[in-house]
Amino acid sequence: MEEGSPEKIVLNLGGVRFETYRSTLTAFPGTKLCSLTEPQALENFDYDPRTKEFFFDRSARLFGQVLSYYRSGHLHCPADACRSAFEEELAFWEVPLGQLPPCCWTKLGELEGPLEESNMEDVEDEGHEGDSQVLLGQVERRNGQRGAWRKPQIWALLEEPFSSQWALCLAIISLLFNIGLIVLLCEETRGFLHHINDTTTGIHPANVLPITEYQTMPYLLYLELVIIIWFTAEFALRLTVCPDKKRFPRKPLNWVDFLSLFPVYIQLFVRSSSYTEHNLAVWLDFFRLLYILKLLKVFRLVETPLMLRVLPYMFRSLLRETLVLMTILVFEIIFLGVLFYYVERFEDLPSCLWWAVVTLTTVGYGDIHPISPLGQAVATCTALCGVMTIILPIPILSIKFKGYYDAAVVKEKMKRRKEPTS
């Protein structure tokens, strides 16, 4: 470098001049700045002999942190710097990211949430808008087929409540029918709406065993049948006009709609046998619980709160932590339950494991409780372990939720600003 000073090197970063000593740049061999001190640097880099400076079309603000690292040996990230931009700058100057101190890793961690959320909006809109795009593509390819043009209209009528007044009316009717199913489910549990069949059985007149059977009033079953017929027609129509048959079974609510159709039809089919099969009745009542899940479709009529849209992504990011927490909880249940069994000598080990679950979760039914002083000491340790196990994840949940929620708020603001210009 005969043209420049033997002691100093001048760098021009986007019009901002930086001047430093050659010895400063040699502090970290193998990096790009250190290579500026080599004899072939004038040919390898953009060097201006007139101004005697190296030119780089890079960010001067971020380069200031890099140059400060060469001067002091401490690398720091600006509080307002974008993580991806800062990582790209360090990669350009061949400075390892591992040189950052813990304080700056905390800053980068706060910025990591928005980066993780960068695809959140796309994922949310992919399923809903993707179906319409696929359907339109199918219509274009089958434009000559009779009736193909009606499918987008029918699909919008069933799946997009705000696409037209008719679609909104259908959505409200379906919601009212859903509420009607819940009301019927509640009414069927009330005693005065059942009639009693008293039958007797026995092999001898002197040995008679009375059996009492409860049957639902017929009109309740028929009301339920009317509502289910509506949902059957709706489900069949949605399946027929669905733009992507492969994607249709991937949605959990579609399975809820499908399985909730069976209880009434099966009950009507076996009604001739007086509904005597107890196990079948239990299974039918279990499937009737799906009526409650059908109420989740109410979110189609209102804008889903941002908080609820953020929760799935937060829980997905905490999957590993959740598995670790559940592993710890299972270990505590087994260890403390077995310890409690040998201390108190209760009936059996499963009862003690049940006691451990109730105590660790701070529920405390009181059906099983320690009597001896040693058992009370074990119970105290169990309660404290349960409190600590439950308290520890709360800060992690709060931090994660705040990061995801802030990122979602930023995306909503960006989306609203783009809408007028689009």
Q: Count every helix, treating DSSP H or I runs of 4 or more residues as helices.
A: 19
- Note the run of SSEs as H and E: EEHHHEEHHHHHHEEHHHHHHHHHH
Largest sheet: 4 strands, mixed
Q: Structural class per helix/strand content?
A: alpha+beta
Model regions low in confidence, pLDDT < 50 over at least 5 residues: 1-5, 113-118, 121-133, 198-204
Strand content: 5-15%
Helix residue percentage = 55-70%
CATH architecture of the largest domain: Up-down Bundle
Q: Looking at the structure, what is the overall shape?
A: flat
- CATH class of the largest domain reads Mainly Alpha
Strand order of the largest sheet: 2-1-4-3
Q: Fill in the CATH topology of the largest domain.
A: Four Helix Bundle (Hemerythrin (Met), subunit A)
Distance between the termini: 54 Å
- How many strands appear in the DSSP assignment? 6
Mean pLDDT: 77
Q: What is the total domain count?
A: 3
Report on the architecture of this protein.
The chain is an alpha+beta fold. A hairpin with a 2-residue loop joins strand 1 and strand 2 (16-21). It has 19 helices and six strands. The protein has helices at residues 22-25, 32-35, 41-44, 60-72, 83-92, 102-116, 120-141, 150-159, 165-187, 218-241, 252-259, 262-269, 278-288, 290-293, 306-317, 319-344, 349-360, 373-391, 393-418; strands at 8-13, 16-21, 47-48, 53-56, 194-204, 207-216. The model is unreliable at 1-5, 113-118, 121-133 and 198-204 (pLDDT under 50). The protein is flat and about 100 Å long. 15% of the residues are buried. The protein folds into three domains: 8-100, 2-Layer Sandwich (Potassium Channel Kv1.1, Chain A), CATH 3.30.710; 149-302, Up-down Bundle (Four Helix Bundle (Hemerythrin (Met), subunit A)); 310-411, Helix Hairpins (Orthogonal Bundle), CATH 1.10.287. A four-stranded mixed β-sheet has the order 2-1-4-3. Strands 5-6 form a two-stranded antiparallel sheet.
